[in-house]
Design goal:
single chain, 361 residues, Isopropylmalate Dehydrogenase, ten-stranded mixed β-sheet, two-stranded antiparallel sheet, 12 helices, 14 strands, binds 3-isopropylmalic acid, binds magnesium ion, oxidoreductase, 3-isopropylmalate dehydrogenase, manganese, magnesium
Length: 361
């Protein structure tokens, strides 16, 4: 297969971790007989430095023209980086939101799996970690608070900031369908997470999710309030299969879910629209504090590349090979510093990529 992949290395640790994911993709291409052409795209701080804005029309068009986009991470240190002297709509994060919206990437899949080998890095009590977990957060990505109207103004002499939270039934329906579709391929359970005891948007969410559920009689549906979900994720993560939720709740819960897997450096993600196109990126940030040191964990990005092969190219065998290689390297005791524990061998970013490649033959 010929794959035309857009690459956004981004800021901070982005370039280092993407480098390793490309290494792994190239190894897969070599072993399984595919060809990959990469188009480098600028987004976030790297784009601000060159073009003055975090996402240009040309980059958006080039992203659209590719089969899929692999991304590292964007953004810098908000205290010291000049990017954060700019008005909010010109900062690195705005580029990511424009890209998600511009490509209509409404479905964000964030799998959180506790690897057998990483149980030692899991911060939960031993008896909880021992049970393991394998859950998928299905986060709505183009609606809600992130894309509502905002303003900061003086009202009656008091400075007042406003962020609007809007969802319409169609936006809810399409993400709910995705959630149930994924559940059908997994353990057939959906936990829809909302704040229906307070928010109108959550009450509509619940109603539409129930309507969609009627089309999936095999899938068990439960509703859970978001505060309770935050608690259940550390109390008993094994209870979850698919967590279906809106944009902001999904942002928060996915960071929490990643941490209970041991490290945010392990959490992959796919952002999808109605076509085969997808944007694949680790769920973690650009970690400017460790950028350039060669110690960042590239596994989340490598696993995101596996998701790309699976979802955008239907290359399940190849995706399986990457996932198996990651598990094998962990089994052999190799760890980046974020998942390091006693008796394991600490290695850097590039060596982690090399070792994962060595298992793909
Ligand atoms: C994420 C990130 C982004 C988000 C930021 C960088 C805007 O935290 O992908 O989870 O909030 O969606
Ligand atoms: Mg986040």
């Amino acid at each position: 297969m010929d794959m035309n992949i857009g690459v956004i290395k981004g800021d901070g640790i982005g370039p280092e971790i993407v480098e390793e994911a490309m290494k792994v993709l190239d190894q897969v291409a070599k072993v399984y007989g595919h060809t990959i052409s990469y188009t480098q795209l600028l987004m976030g701080g790297a784009s601000i430095d060159v073009a003055g804005v975090p996402l240009t029309e040309a980059t958006l068009a080039a992203a659209k023209a590719s089969d899929a986009v692999l991304m590292g991470s964007i953004g810098g240190d908000a205290k010291t980086s000049p990017w954060y002297q700019l008005e909010p709509s010109r900062r690195p994060e705005a580029g990511l939101l424009q890209l998600r919206k511009g490509l209509n990437l409404f479905a964000n899949l964030r799998p959180a799996v506790l690897y057998e080998e990483l149980k030692g890095a899991c911060p939960l009590k031993e008896e909880i970690a021992d049970r393991g977990f394998d859950l998928m957060i299905m986060r709505e990505l183009t609606g809600g608070l992130y894309f509502g109207k905002r303003s900061t103004e003086e009202i009656d002499g008091v400075v007042t900031a406003k962020d609007e939270l809007t969802y319409n039934e169609n936006e809810i329906r399409r993400i709910a369908r995705r959630g149930f579709d994924i559940a059908m391929k997994r353990r057939k359970k959906v936990t829809s997470v909302d704040k229906a005891n307070v928010l109108d948007s959550s009450r509509l969410w619940r109603k539409i999710v129930e309507e969609v559920a009627a089309d999936y009689p095999e899938v068990e549906l439960e509703h859970m309030l978001v505060d309770n979900c935050a608690m259940q994720l550390v109390k008993d993560p094994a209870q979850f299969d698919v967590i279906l939720t809106e944009n902001m709740f999904g942002d928060i819960l996915s960071d929490e879910a990643s941490m209970v897997t041991g490290s945010i450096g392990m959490l992959a993600s796919a952002s999808l629209n109605d076509t085969k196109f997808g944007l694949y990126e680790p769920s973690g940030g650009s970690a400017p504090d460790i950028a350039g040191q060669g110690i960042a964990n590239p596994i989340a990005t490598i696993l995101s590349a596996a998701m790309m092969l699976r979802f955008s190219f239907d290359l399940d065998k190849e995706a399986d090979a990457i996932e198996a290689a990651v598990a094998a390297v962990l089994k052999d005791g190799y760890r980046t510093i974020d998942i390091m524990s006693d008796g394991r061998k600490q290695i850097g970013t590039a060596e982690m990529g090399d070792r994962i490649c060595s298992y793909i033959k």
